[in-house]
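Reopening: structure tokens for the glyceraldehyde-3-phosphate complex, inputs below.
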Amino acid sequence: MHTLRDILEQTQKNGVAIGHFNIADLVLLKAVFAAAQELNFPVLVGVSEGEREFIGVHQIAALVRSLREEFDFPIFLNADHTHSLPNAVEAAKAGFDAIVFDLSALPFEQNVRQTKGAVEALKSINPNILVEGEIGDIGIGSEIHEDVPDLTKGLTDPKEARQFVESTGIDILAPAVGNMHGMLQSMVQGKTRKHLDIERIAQIKTAARILLTLHGGSGTDDEDLRRAIAAGINIVHINTELRVAWRHGLEDALVKLPHEVVPYKILPFAVESVKQVASSRLRLFNNAR
Ligand code: G3H
Ligand code: ZN
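Re-run output (same inputs, fresh job):
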């Protein structure tokens, strides 16, 4: 079985990106896995600190490992947006393939110093683990927001990106390039889309020469995503779009089956709804129709 690093290097050579989908329950995991398996694209599932508090750090590690082994399929697990070293260490010890160590809210020097320390600590637990660091401001959670936050002051500077990568020893960088977490109601309705600073992505790639993750992928314009991948993005994170689909699928089931109480008859509607979103995003990231 290939490692996540092998897969990322291969997808970089092929000019495509890996889809990263956040999950918080078995419905989301089943849907993302079914989409990836049907299309035969490698996939990364992520759990933030809140998501793994709900699903369980060791439980999600066991579930993802069981899918990988039983189906001999390249599905990998990421500890998304981890804000403390003890939480990162817990995930590394549980067997996660990657950790997003996110101290982007701290001043640059503190972010550098603590991220460097985390890289050393996590690699001493598992030398193959991939550590992602983050600089810049990509806003708050994967929810429906009332207003667009002003993120223009927090955009990642290419020189600072290089300095951060060289000083910390991270494997992957998450920059702020016009992306933001979550969606506006107008994005859920398909009336507006997020747009990215493609030129900045290309400059960061040239300066930092490292694998790049785009966070806040939900609601982003398709053509911008294609251009961002061509400019050097290797992983794209999608969360809010799946959460919206999960809710809509569930609502649909409850309307269609008003008297049903059997979970395995209700929940497949949510699985199908999430699977459709994951499939469509996977096709786009992998340049497929
Ligand atoms: O880490 C999670 C992602 O960056 C998801 O962002 O909810 O805008 O898709 P999103
Ligand atoms: Zn994110």
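The chain has a mean pLDDT of 97. The first strand starts at residue 18 and ends at 22. Marking as resolved unless the reporter disagrees.
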